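Give me the fold.
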Amino acid sequence: MGLLLTVGSRNNRKMQSTASLTLAKARLFLEQARRADRNDYHTISTNLEGAIVFCRSVTFHLQSQFSHAPGFDTWYIEQQNILRGQRLGKFLLEQRNYVLKVGPAIVNRIVGVSITEALIMHDEVTVEVLRGQPWYCRSPKILFEDLVYPLRQRIRLWMERRRRLNAIKKKTAESADMITSDELHFADADWNKLPAIQLIEQQLAVLADIVVEAEDRFLSNEANAV
């Protein structure tokens, strides 16, 4: 007979199965792995292994606690068939067996950096002044203006380019977005695309649904037996 835990206030109590407590332990290890210093490989990998082991123990504890409940065997066979058809469940079972029988889970640290920047485009227009009169028919003022115009044009363009460059630098600094990731991934080629924590979370979500259904079906009978 498994452990029955009652949580909540006196007027609103809810019983939890042993499997539910095991699920909570797996989530605790996973949360500790998530909160650990990214450079503390030992702490992260150790908590990941703990989460894997307790994740696999959920179904064991369901069997242990409810195996004598009416209808459990038929229901559990259905759940086993569902779990056997899930590749992730099979993989984590292999990882659990490896951790318990061989050694630490094989994981790799992957650091990713992604930088995005806004694209800023601009055009420049140069104006050339054409006089209708020959130069010897122009006034001294116009001759002087024509003489210094190229220099003024270059200075104006230089100032405009400098102003635009400063604006681009400011805009780029405001719009640039850097995304970094630092995660442990399983070394297995079929399962190294997502972080190990995310994969374990997915499996825990599947098991959580099974535990909830088991408690709804069989926990009241267990409580009455107690």
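The radius of gyration is 35 Å.
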